[in-house]
């Protein structure tokens, strides 16, 4: 299969499951509270536990993809995700819901690691960052379409409508599995020697440092979905509908500009690519500091509602730029610093930054921004700058370890 066809197939698989996920994300909480009768506390506790277990499971499942072949592992994990989603059609108890969301989170985290290993086996090192950017744009497009479909279910607010959403999401993952199954086989990694640890990434302190810094930078994820809406309502005079407008702005911006933003990141020799990616991450921290400062300025008492809205739009544009820079740089580092034959487990470990940010982020951001106010924004901006600046030394440390960077590119 030509390289372009492989990329198109990966994008089609991404689109197939992201449409269903978009509909699921906007409807699932209301379904389980209004139709099944679970409390918000029960749902929040179950989701926190599920994603914590999923983050831990991503590493061994990624390692399994390395050993058994990432294509087969991706297909099986996509089908497992479909089964977990379709089980929501018959679940009517909290215990069943807890088991289902744990299975969903574990399968999703494992699928993400296996798909990254599959991508690494199908796409050359010089093209990976650009391909991931294209897949991210496809993901956002699918989520947007799915959210619109979910909106129809919310409008009618009937059990049948919600169940149709779950069926759509499950069918999307089945379609994803079918598409991934048509891609070329990627050979599994050579069998490890007796001296090699089963999960080498857990002993790789330089890569762990890069992963931790990336997790800190990923605090931007709950920023737009949680902290900014609360900030707008409680600390500014801007209209509340701006919350939705800023979300659309972010989604559309990533769809339109993420591929362009990733162009050139990591180009050149391996060492040059690491420096280029680290510089991009460092710049993202600076842009995020500027975004935080502008967000803080939106609370000025002298601003009219439309003036506050204009300031918030500017802050959101800066946040979007910083997000795309951070994503492009971190994607390249995650791949290039992973040893050959261990991409699955390393991607599974790197991917723990997402559930970590989503678990810790709401508590940190609400304490800093909603409770503390303007000083909290400045502290958060300083955290972004510090993590971005530290990424360069951490990446160089990872590049000097026993397994050199070049080994990851063979």
Keywords:
410 residues; disordered C terminus; Growth Hormone, Chain: A; 2 domains; mainly alpha; 0% strand
Give a description of the structure:
The chain is mostly helical. The chain has 2 domains: about 5-180, Growth Hormone, Chain: A, CATH 1.20.1250.20; about 200-410, Growth Hormone, Chain: A. Helices cover about 80% and strands about 0% of the residues. The protein has helices at about 5-35, 40-70, 70-85, 95-120, 130-155, 160-180, 205-215, 220-235, 240-260, 270-295, 305-335, 345-350, 355-370, 375-400.
Detail the poorly predicted runs. Answer: 402-410
Assess the beta-strand content as a share of residues. Answer: under 5%
Query: What's the number of domains?
Result: 2
State the distance separating the first and last CA atoms: 21 Å
Based on the structure given, which CATH architecture of the largest domain is correct?
A: Up-down Bundle
- Helix/strand order: HHHHHHHHHHHHHH
Provide the helix percentage: over 70%
Full CATH superfamily name of the largest domain: MFS general substrate transporter like domains
Q: Return the average pLDDT rounded to an integer.
A: 88
CATH topology of the largest domain: Growth Hormone, Chain: A
Whole-angstrom Rg: 21 Å
Q: Tally the beta strands.
A: 0
């Amino acid at each position: 299969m030509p390289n372009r066809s492989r990329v198109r197939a990966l994008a089609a698989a991404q689109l197939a499951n992201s449409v269903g996920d978009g509909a699921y994300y906007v409807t699932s909480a209301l379904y389980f509270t209004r139709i099944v009768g679970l409390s918000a506390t029960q749902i929040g506790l179950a989701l926190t536990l599920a994603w914590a277990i999923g983050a831990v499971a991503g590493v061994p499942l990624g390692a399994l993809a390395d050993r058994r072949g990432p294509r087969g592992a991706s297909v099986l994990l996509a089908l497992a995700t479909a089964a977990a989603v379709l089980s929501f059609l018959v679940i009517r108890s909290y215990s069943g819901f807890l088991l289902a969301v744990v299975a969903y989170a574990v399968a999703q985290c494992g699928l993400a690691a296996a798909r990254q290993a599959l991508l690494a086996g199908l796409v050359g090192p010089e093209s990976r960052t650009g391909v991931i950017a294209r897949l991210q744009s496809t993901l956002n497009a699918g989520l947007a379409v799915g959210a619109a479909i979910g909106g129809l279910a919310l409008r009618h607010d009937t059990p049948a409508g919600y169940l149709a959403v779950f069926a759509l999401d499950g069918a999307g993952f089945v379609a994803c599995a079918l598409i991934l199954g048509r891609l070329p086989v990627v050979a599994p990694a050579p069998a490890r020697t007796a001296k090699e640890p089963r999960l080498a990434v857990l002993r790789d302190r330089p890569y762990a440092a890069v992963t931790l810094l990336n997790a800190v930078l990923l605090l931007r994820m709950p920023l737009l979905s949680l902290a900014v809406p609360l900030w707008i309502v409680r600390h500014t005079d801007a209209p509340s509908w701006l919350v939705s407008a800023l979300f659309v702005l972010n989604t559309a911006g990533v769809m339109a500009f993420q591929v362009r933003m990733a162009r050139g990141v990591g180009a050149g020799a391996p060492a040059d690519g690491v420096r280029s990616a680290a510089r991009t991450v460092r710049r993202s921290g600076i842009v995020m500091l500027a975004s935080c400062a502008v967000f803080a300025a939106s609370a000025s008492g002298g601003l009219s509602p439309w003036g506050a809205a204009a300031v918030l739009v500017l802050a959101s544009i800066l946040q979007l730029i910083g997000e795309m820079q951070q994503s492009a740089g971190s994607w390249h580092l995650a791949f290039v610093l992973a040893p050959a034959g261990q991409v699955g487990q390393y991607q599974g470990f790197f991917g723990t930054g997402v559930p970590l940010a989503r678990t810790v982020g709401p508590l940190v951001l609400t304490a800093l921004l909603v409770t503390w106010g303007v000083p909290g924004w400045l502290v958060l901006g300083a955290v972004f700058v510090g993590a971005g600046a530290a990424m360069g030394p951490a990446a160089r440390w990872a590049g000097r370890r026993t397994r050199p960077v070049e080994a990851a590119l063979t």
